[in-house]
């Protein structure tokens, strides 16, 4: 777990699953996050984002499979906790504490606490030290929570929907701080959000979760390389579909649009390659896999799309 | 960690210490009032009759204090279990603060251990001091008017401290299972009532009682000459009618001495031979402290069980 020593992945999940009674909140989850990456975790509500982050933070125990953080298995959480920063989706700070008391709690509970970083961030965001957490706005509460996690000086930072309450200006500012620290301290970050736009600006790695399963986990660069959007005549669609794995296809009249996943270059005289947006890929994975995998889940898809585009 | 616990419980601690000091002062005043009677022979006649009722403060006599203590002290395990024990974990789960405090650099088992150690020690020290004063008071009290020392068995000595500690850890366990403050408090109350009733009624059976034949008869030269009252410092567990051997209970309906067949001296002798009263009891100076130890051990075992369940729930 020594810093700078590249020994293992920052996060490594193998066949990871979490079950509540008969309901699987997460299953067959295989992820390898390289150290130093900033990974986005997308998926609609109830897709298992929070479950995965809670498993990584040691708040939950896996029902099946295993999860390792920084090369240490999750059952050795006592050793891991000092190296993992976690920000929960809802405000989980003590509401009756003042900001200043919350910082004292952080200092008392964390041996590697970076007081000067905490103070400078509190100043930068003009947070009132004497105010109790309960009286701060939702955005300010989220900021304090993020500052607490950063000042712990972690190697792996887990952020569960950190931007949902923050106004756009502060969102931009905190994004900048996170990027600076990630660069300075070779921090690995896993951020969940259902707003793809928030993640696109920050992340270089993407994990797509839907219906409790990982659909795609790869670097954004590789995702964009690997996926191809093609437009061509419907009559030669079968030739394309048998030659390459099709993620999504739509047909309008005699023209077809297909999204392919292949490392090879696709060259077919009748088919023309289009510019591809990350959003298209994400939606394609959620849409196609949902409808073919679990028909009942497709009914909740439109609401997700609205959120993604908003 | 200690700072965090201090920050959470500072007002409760101040309040607790204040209440403890006031209670200790009132106990001490009662004792000194009762002790003063021994120095004043003209008032000491109440000692023989066993009905002393002395004025401690305006509006407070030694008897009202006795009944106040007698009625309120049994509630102490409930108060501690409901207001200190049940919210300990339930509040963290309900306010979601467990997500914050269990993802700092300290494992949640250590967080729980530190909390239980500090709260447990505070409870043992505070109620230990209270029990010490209450026990001292109750011995003086026993001497000045006629109440059985057994009536205050559960609220003096080590039993009081162990019972409050059990209440605390029982509440913590319910909080760990229910995870909501108000339901945890209500369930703690509802489940503690039968448990406390069982302990109050069951403790005399933790230790085998003494037994005696013709406990209430005064017998001179083999003749019953009078009826005796129960001894005040005995806790009577059972009275039953036994046969000639002094052990086997007999059914009074199967009368071995039918009074339509026997009369006079023959009936009297048959009765004397076949009917014995067997009384099982604990005598104060023989069994009080052994029973205190046995009850304390039982309560500590129950408290340890609750703690085990709490750790199991929290680690899941």
TrEMBL record, chain A:
Keywords: ATP-binding, Nucleotide-binding, Transport. The keyword ATP-binding applies. One of its GO terms (molecular function) is ATP hydrolysis activity. Signal peptide: none annotated. Pfam families: ABC_tran. Residues 11-236 form the ABC transporter domain. This is ABC transporter ATP-binding protein. The lineage of its organism: Bacteria, Bacillati, Chloroflexota, Ktedonobacteria, Ktedonobacterales.
């Amino acid at each position: 777990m020594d810093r700078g020593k590249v020994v293992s992945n920052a996060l490594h999940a193998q066949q990871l699953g979490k079950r509540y009674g008969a309901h699987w909140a997460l299953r067959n989850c295989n992820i390898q996050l390289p150290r130093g990456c900033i990974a986005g975790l997308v998926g609609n509500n109830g897709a298992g984002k929070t479950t995965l982050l809670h498993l990584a933070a040691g708040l939950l125990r896996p029902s099946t499979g295993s999860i390792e953080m920084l090369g240490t298995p999750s059952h050795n959480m006592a050793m891991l906790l000092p190296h993992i920063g976690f920000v929960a989706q809802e405000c989980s700070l003590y509401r009756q504490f003042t900001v200043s008391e919350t910082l004292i709690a952080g200092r008392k509970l964390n041996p590697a606490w970076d007081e000067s970083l905490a103070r400078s961030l509190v100043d930068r965001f003009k947070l009132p030290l004497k105010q109790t957490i309960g009286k701060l706005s939702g955005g300010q509460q989220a900021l304090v929570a993020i500052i607490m996690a950063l000042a712990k000086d972690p190697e792996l930072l887990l952020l569960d929907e950190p931007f949902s309450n923050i106004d756009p200006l502060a969102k931009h500012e905190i994004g900048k701080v996170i990027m600076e620290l990630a660069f300075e301290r070779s921090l690995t970050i896993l951020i969940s959000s259902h707003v793809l736009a928030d993640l696109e600006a920050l992340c270089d790695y993407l994990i797509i979760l839907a219906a409790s399963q990982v659909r795609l986990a790869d670097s954004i660069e590789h995702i964009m390389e690997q996926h191809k959007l093609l437009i061509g005549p419907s009559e030669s669609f079968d030739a394309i579909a048998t030659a390459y794995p099709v993620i999504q296809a739509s047909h309008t009249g005699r023209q077809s649009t297909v999204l392919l996943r292949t490392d090879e270059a696709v060259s077919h005289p009748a088919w023309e390659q289009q510019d591809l947006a990350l959003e298209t890929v994400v939606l394609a994975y959620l849409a196609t896999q949902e409808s073919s995998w679990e028909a009942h889940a497709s009914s909740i898809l439109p609401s997700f799309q609205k959120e993604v585009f908003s | 960690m200690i700072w965090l616990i201090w920050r959470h419980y500072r007002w409760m601690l101040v309040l607790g210490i204040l209440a403890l000091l006031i209670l200790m002062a009132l106990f001490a005043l009662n004792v000194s009032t009762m002790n003063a009677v021994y120095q004043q022979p003209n008032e000491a006649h109440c000692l023989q009759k066993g009905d002393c009722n002395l004025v401690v403060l305006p509006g407070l006599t030694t008897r009202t204090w006795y009944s106040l203590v007698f009625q309120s002290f049994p509630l102490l395990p409930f108060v501690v279990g409901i207001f200190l024990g049940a919210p300990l974990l339930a509040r963290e789960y309900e306010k979601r603060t467990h997500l914050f405090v269990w993802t700092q650099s300290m494992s949640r088992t250590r967080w729980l251990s530190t909390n239980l150690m500090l709260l447990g020690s505070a409870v043992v020290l505070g109620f230990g001091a209270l029990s010490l004063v209450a026990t001292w008071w109750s011995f003086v009290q026993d001497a000045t008017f006629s109440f059985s020392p057994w009536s205050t068995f559960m609220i003096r000595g080590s039993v009081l401290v162990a019972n409050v500690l059990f209440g605390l850890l029982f509440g913590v366990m319910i909080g760990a299972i229910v995870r909501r403050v108000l339901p945890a408090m209500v369930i703690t109350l509802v489940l503690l009532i039968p448990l406390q009733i069982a302990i109050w009624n069951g403790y005399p059976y933790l230790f085998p009682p003494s037994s005696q034949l013709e406990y209430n008869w005064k017998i001179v030269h083999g003749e019953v000459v009078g009826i005796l009252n129960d001894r005040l410092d005995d806790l009577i567990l059972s009275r039953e009618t036994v046969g000639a051997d002094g052990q086997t209970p007999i059914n009074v309906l199967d009368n071995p001495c039918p009074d339509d067949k026997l009369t006079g001296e023959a009936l009297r002798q048959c009765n004397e031979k076949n009917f014995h009263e067997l009384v099982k009891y604990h005598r104060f100076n023989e069994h009080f402290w052994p029973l205190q130890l046995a009850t304390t051990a039982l309560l500590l075992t129950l408290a340890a069980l609750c703690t085990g369940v709490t750790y199991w729930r929290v680690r899941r």
